[in-house]
Write a structure and sequence with these properties.
By secondary structure, the chain is of the alpha/beta class. Helix content is 40%, strand content 17%. The longest helix has 15 residues.
């Protein structure tokens, strides 16, 4: 622990992040990426790992519990065997996370206090999946942190990462510079928060953070959100090539960025001469280009594995399609008549072409029917198998990169 790290530890004792009220667990479950159970099944295990096999999870740097609570609740609701090990060095953050777990009567969480950098000596064993969300960019040595996580992976396991990205955080670091002058870290945290709020009220309209609609923690994240965003003693962002190098340096393989569609420059570029140039780029270069031309990515989410892992098999009749946080029949009814699904990411609107049979297929996606069974139903309606398979492939090409149409883990 260096001097900056000591201040960081004190910050999260004073302001557990993100700011959460355990009583809210009776109203809603916070879901997101990484570490949604359906995403883990699909992107990490290729929809090949049976649900009957116990899943051992580590949430490294669990904070006030968002990832831990989401995954533990999803596993418990689906009667999936296994455990979620929460690890964080903040006693205050752990207290919030434990209170949230009690509200939900979750029985599959094990709480541990410590740093992910100490994993080799903690005796926690190996994990099938590790969540590390919003942690690496605060470490004195992110490479050492990721190496420690890679060393704790069981064979065939994977990691879900989230780190800050530079372009979408335009204005943040300028405001941090200003507050180092106005609210030095020698002052008590409440005094620094007060000065930060006063400064934000007085900041002129020319400030880049005022023009950045994608960063809102200082507005709606409470004192903890404001402190973490503007007063954090160590905050390092990673561009796509920097994150890719970090992953490769740890001996890991990048499976995908989330959502994959956002990292495909051809989604934004229609000019054939530009596309001829993007076609010659490798995946990391393509993702780097997408990050640079969009300018609105404030974080990067990535799924990585240590070993070569199988890809989801969309050609298997036994595979079961699922929609992440969407209802198939409802989505089918809402498709536009022009055959284009319009989605918006941080003010950027993208049109995703849908095949002719999109509505018919989606209306049958219930998380139980297999691809073969859906084909049988449509065949009974007079739709040829080849036509179904062609349109299914187009539907997958549209919705899998949105991280919405995935394949479920097999039951056995």
């Amino acid at each position: 622990m260096d001097a900056i790290d000591a201040r960081l530890a004190a910050q999260y004792e004073a302001y557990p992040y993100p700011q959460r009220d355990p009583r809210d667990e009776t109203k809603r479950l916070i879901v997101g990426s990484p570490s949604h159970l359906r995403e883990i099944d699909h992107w990490i295990f290729g929809a090949r790992r049976p649900t009957s096999v116990p899943l051992r999870v580590l949430v490294a740097g669990g904070g006030s519990g968002d990832g831990t609570i989401m995954l533990a609740q999803q596993m418990q609701s689906a009667s999936r065997p296994g455990e979620v090990v929460y690890l964080d060095r903040s006693a205050a953050a752990r207290g919030v996370a434990e209170a949230r777990a009690r509200q939900r009567a979750l029985r599959n969480i094990r709480f541990e206090t410590g740093s992910l950098l100490d994993l080799p000596g903690l005796g926690l064993g190996a994990f099938d999946y590790i969540d590390c969300c919003g942690v690496l960019h605060h470490l004195p040595d992110p490479a050492a942190g990721l190496a420690a996580l890679a060393g704790a992976l069981a064979p065939g396991g994977g990691i879900g990462l989230m780190v800050y990205a530079p372009h979408g955080r335009t204005g943040v670091y300028m405001m941090q510079d200003a507050l180092r002058l106005l609210a030095p870290d020698s002052e008590a945290p409440p005094a620094r928060v007060d000065i930060a709020r006063r400064l934000w009220k007085q900041t002129p309209d020319t400030a880049w953070l005022r023009r950045n609609p994608w960063i809102t923690d200082h507005i709606d994240g409470g004192d903890a959100g404001l402190y973490d965003l503007l007063l954090n003693p160590r905050d390092v962002s990673f561009s796509v090539p920097q994150l890719a190098a970090l992953i490769e340096g740890a001996g890991l393989t990048l499976r995908c960025f989330v959502e994959p569609l956002r990292y495909d420059p051809d989604r934004y570029l229609n000019d054939p001469r530009l596309r001829a140039r993007t076609a010659a780029m490798d995946p990391v270069a393509r993702a780097t280009l997408a990050e640079a031309i969009c300018g609105n990515m404030g974080i990067h989410i990535a799924y990585v594995t240590r070993d070569e892992a199988p890809r989801p098999d969309w050609n298997s009749d036994a595979a079961v399609p699922v929609l992440r946080e969407l209802d198939g029949p409802t989505l089918a009814k809402g498709l536009a008549t022009d055959g284009v699904l319009r989605v918006t990411y941080d003010n950027l609107r993208v049109g995703v072409p849908m095949p002719r049979l999109a509505a018919a297929i989606l209306a049958l996606v219930d998380g139980q029917r297999s691809l073969g069974e859906i084909g049988d139903i449509l065949a009974g309606r007079g739709i040829a198998r080849d036509t179904y398979r062609r349109d299914l492939a187009q539907l997958r090409d549209g919705l899998e990169p949105l991280n919405r149409l995935l394949l479920a883990a097999p039951a056995a």
